[in-house]
Design goal:
The protein is mainly beta. It has 2 helices and 13 strands; from the N terminus they run ββββαβββββββββα.
Length: 208
C-alpha cells in the first residue's frame, strides 16, 4: 500500500518503504495504442526493480518504465506486444460533469481480470497535492469503489472513453473504499504524455 503522507488519503500500488527485501505489489493500467504504450500511476511503479504487465488474455510482458511525473502521479510504460492489444480511447475530462455515470476498472486486491465498479462523478476540480510540493492538480472525485490494486486503472465514461486515472481514496483511518475516491483527469495525463515518452520526465516553467 502507498501512503501519500497526509492524513485520511491513501493510494494503492507501492510497497511500504523500509529495509531492503523482495516484495511484490500490484496495480492497474491501460493500453493507449497498439504499439504497447501503457498509462498507470507513478506510485504503482516507483522503486520497482522489475515491472510485469499481464493483459486480460493472460499474456505476461516485461515492461519498461519510460517516464513518470510526481505532480500528476502519472507513469508511462512500454511493452512489446505479441498479440493485438485492446486500446482504450482517451476522452475529454474537461467535459465531465458531477452526476455523470462512470466506471472504475482495475485489479482490486489482486483478484485478477478487468473488475468493474460503477458510480458517478461526485465532484469536479478537487485540488489535491499528489507530490506534496505545493502544486495541486484538480482531481475528479467519484463514489465508484476504488480499492488496493485499482491504482493506475481507467475511469471510464458511459461512452467507453477514459476520463481519469484511478489514484487514491479518502479513508479517514479505515483502509478500504469509503465512496470518496479520486482520479487524475485524463487531460492532465495527456498534457504530460509527450514529454514522458520523449524525455522520461516533465520540464515545467516556474517563477521566483
Amino acid at each position: 500500500q502507498f501512503f501519500h503522507g497526509f492524513p485520511g488519503f491513501q493510494g494503492f500500488g507501492e510497497p511500504p518503504r523500509g529495509e531492503r527485501r523482495t516484495q511484490m505489489s500490484q496495480g492497474s493500467g491501460f493500453v493507449i495504442d497498439r504499439e504497447g504504450w501503457i498509462l498507470t500511476n507513478r506510485h504503482v511503479v516507483d522503486d520497482a526493480d522489475n515491472v510485469w504487465v499481464t493483459t486480460s488474455t493472460g499474456k505476461r510482458y516485461g515492461a519498461k518504465v519510460v517516464g513518470r511525473d510526481a505532480r500528476t502521479d502519472v507513469a508511462v510504460l512500454k511493452i512489446t506486444p505479441r498479440e493485438p492489444l485492446t486500446v482504450l480511447p482517451l476522452g475529454d475530462s474537461g467535459k465531465v460533469e458531477p452526476g455523470e455515470w462512470v466506471m472504475a476498472v482495475g485489479n482490486p486486491f489482486g483478484l485478477g481480470g478487468n473488475s468493474v465498479s460503477v458510480g458517478v462523478v461526485s465532484f469536479k476540480g478537487r485540488p489535491l497535492d499528489l507530490s506534496e510540493r505545493g502544486t495541486p492538480i484538480e482531481m475528479i472525485q467519484t463514489d465508484a469503489a476504488i480499492n488496493p490494486g485499482n491504482s493506475g486503472g481507467p475511469l471510464i465514461d458511459a461512452e467507453g472513453r477514459v476520463v481519469g486515472i484511478n489514484t487514491l481514496i479518502m479513508t479517514q483511518g479505515v483502509a478500504q473504499s469509503s465512496g470518496v475516491g479520486f482520479a487524475v483527469p485524463i487531460n492532465a495525463a495527456k498534457a504530460v504524455l509527450p514529454q514522458l515518452k520523449e524525455k522520461g520526465h516533465v520540464t515545467r516553467g516556474w517563477l521566483g
